[in-house]
Design goal:
The protein is α+β, with helices and mostly antiparallel strands and about 220 residues long. Helix content is about 40%, strand content about 30%. It has 2 domains: about 1-80; about 90-95 and about 115-220, Sandwich (Immunoglobulin-like). It is elongated, with a radius of gyration of 26 Å.
Length: about 220
């Protein structure tokens, strides 16, 4: 069922186009049937016109219901799905060498060594895996848009999480399977969290659901 929801969300522009064209045909049929029914004078003629009118009306209602269904699934159902549902189906590359994921992870780790990170951050790689907004050690409140970059080898999907500083309990906020380059990573609604010091992290996983990178920054949530 989750795969069906993801398919609908991914192909919603095409689905809207198909439904719109079909809906236009039914609407035209409905108009013609209504016109025919109004111009009918005899009993049998009016009965046939009424059947056409009922069929055209039913078809129009079905198209509207389908369009509302696609909108509801894309807007509410898919964003609420667990992060694992966004994971792409693993594929086998006959040219890949064994341990390719481990090699990519090692390359990512080694690349982290010479690159400086901002105070209050950990594991972030400028231009590869970083959170540029909010900045580390800043106060935030309300609904905050996270901005950053997630563009690493063997990318499968990423998720972002928050944790109260001093604990190891992380709460996943949302996830995405799109590569990001200094773009919106998602939103964090701080109003549902108790004011205080928190850690915010972006976790990157490959197509085997193995963690290949983590960027952590310190934030402080202010009261309203």
């Amino acid at each position: 069922m989750q795969q069906i929801f993801l398919f609908l969300e991914k192909n919603q522009p095409i689905l809207y186009l198909i439904l719109a064209l079909t809906g236009f045909s039914f609407a035209r049929w409905l108009w013609l049937a209504l016109k025919e029914w109004r111009n009918a004078f005899f009993g049998l003629e009016r009965e046939i016109a009424m059947r056409k009118l009922a069929q055209a009306s039913a078809g129009t209602v079905v198209i509207l219901v389908l369009m509302c269904g696609v909108f509801f699934i894309s807007t509410f159902v898919v964003p609420a799905m667990p992060a694992d549902a966004l994971l792409a189906t693993p594929t086998i590359d006959i040219l890949a060498t064994p341990g390719a994921a481990q090699v990519g992870e090692a390359a990512l780790t080694s690349a982290a060594t010479p690159l400086p990170t901002a105070p209050g951050s950990e594991g972030c790689l400028p231009g590869k895996l970083e959170i540029t907004s909010p900045r580390p050690n800043t106060d935030i409140s309300g609904i905050v848009t996270l901005v950053g970059t997630v563009d690493v080898p063997n990318f499968g999907f990423y998720k972002y999480e928050v944790s109260v500083r001093g604990t190891d309990v992380w709460s996943t906020i949302s996830a995405s399977s799109e590569v990001k380059k200094n773009a919106d990573l998602g939103e964090l609604n701080t109003s549902i969290l108790t004011p205080g010091d928190y850690l915010l992290r972006v976790v990157v996983l490959d197509n085997s659901a193995q963690v290949i990178g983590t960027c952590v920054i310190s934030i402080r949530i202010k009261g309203n």
